[in-house]
């Protein structure tokens, strides 16, 4: 027997129903906020992610499904959705339309060669949104509200973590301060952190190692070193969230694992799913479009990890729907198939059992397929060109014309 690869899962039965429910609920809310559907290729040039997510990130450094294709191109399976959407936005020259706001949503598989564990897969699915052309902090607020609304609609409880990662003015001097502090405590830090002092010092802040966290308690905090404009934005965002009654926690160690962020960064976490507690993450990336060759365009977005919320979703009980049709005699099958076609043309869901069976077996089949109506043609009904129909919800029976 051949099994799926490690860290990759089939979505079927209850899980595929949950997947569709999540993506449809989120898409409907995104539509209300003016976002439209975009689908970008799963395979992209490797340099797209090197330039955007960043060479010093774990995602690019260790986790990419990267290979050379038959044409000799260096390609990889997308580890996330933002870079591809930015590429598509720029490739379509939308960055050249002054004042245009473009808002997209997407969902689909992402690939990271991580060590699989609960809540961490190598192929997982995200629902994400990206908004281009809107620099005002009201957009940051709106995206956080929208994400809250999605989780509320899905019946999921969460905590909102918030930070600001500054801009090209305040981040470099802050980074210098941080590096100097990290050198002071270097001896006590883990190997990963020591390496990151040179490659990506900000990431040291979110090391999961307890002894590192203890040493980092005295580290300078970005929120204390924001420039005037970043500070004003952060204060305004907090007051908008306060006004809207959205609870949040400022977490100065929230730095995100991708290099393209500046300004607002946020994560939604759940305490009901174990160690991999982040159920969504996002933030501003005002320099990314330019960095990927487009005209400077502000951007902000987020992505939800669908597998992480799969078991938390409160789904409405599926209502009995449509028809189950069967016959007790083989001759009746062509007429039954015509009846099925007519119902489907009316937009009804219809499941047909082709093998002739007794009434009891058909009623069982109808129950199993969650049909509202069970229609069966026996010998008598066939002679009268009729079908026996039972409404499994109202528990009522009737005969109707097989030609209807
Ligand atoms: P991210 O934080 O890397 O951000 O991923 C977003 C979410 O995807 C995480 O919060 C988590 O729920 C889920 N996730 C990540 N890795 C895995 C995995 N190995 N297995 C299962 N779930 C996982 C991004 O990807 C950014 N592109 C988000 C964004 C959009 N920022 C701006 N726009």
Task: Examine the coordinates and then state which fold CATH places here, giving the name of the CATH topology of the largest domain.
Answer: BirA Bifunctional Protein, domain 2
CATH-derived architecture of the largest domain: 2-Layer Sandwich
Major sheet attributes: 8 strands, mixed
Q: What is the total tally of β strands?
A: 16
- Counting H and I runs of at least 4 residues, what is the number of helices? 15
Beta content: 15-25%
The CATH homology group name of the largest domain: Bira Bifunctional Protein, Domain 2
Structurally, how many domains make up the residues? 2
Structural class: alpha+beta
Give a quick precis of the structure.
The protein has 404 residues and is α+β, with helices and mostly antiparallel strands. It is 36% helix and 21% strand.
Give descriptors for this structure:
15 helices, five-stranded mixed β-sheet, 2 domains, Rossmann fold, single chain, binds histidyl-adenosine monophosphate, 404 residues, eight-stranded mixed β-sheet, alpha+beta, BirA Bifunctional Protein, domain 2
Question: Can you walk me through this structure?
Answer:
With 404 residues, the chain is an alpha+beta fold. The chain has two domains: 13-170 and 226-312, Bira Bifunctional Protein, Domain 2 (BirA Bifunctional Protein, domain 2, 2-Layer Sandwich), CATH 3.30.930.10; 323-401, Rossmann fold (3-Layer(aba) Sandwich), CATH 3.40.50. Helices cover 36% and strands 21% of the residues. It has helices at residues 14-32, 46-54, 58-62, 82-91, 137-153, 171-185, 191-199, 201-204, 210-216, 228-243, 288-291, 306-309, 333-345, 359-368, 379-383; strands at 36-37, 43-45, 66-68, 74-77, 102-111, 123-132, 159-164, 249-250, 264-269, 278-284, 299-305, 323-327, 350-352, 373-377, 386-391, 396-401. The strands form three sheets. An eight-stranded mixed beta sheet has the order 1-5-6-11-10-9-7-8, with helices on both faces. A five-stranded mixed beta sheet has the order 13-12-14-15-16, with helices on both faces. It has a three-stranded antiparallel beta sheet with strand order 2-4-3. Strand 15 (386-391) and strand 16 form a beta hairpin. Helix 1 (14-32) runs antiparallel to helix 5 (137-153) and helix 5 (137-153) runs parallel beside helix 10 (228-243). The longest helix is centred in the N-terminal third of the chain and has 19 residues, at 14-32. The protein is elongated and about 90 Å long. The model has no long low-confidence stretch (mean pLDDT 96). The structure holds histidyl-adenosine monophosphate (HAM).
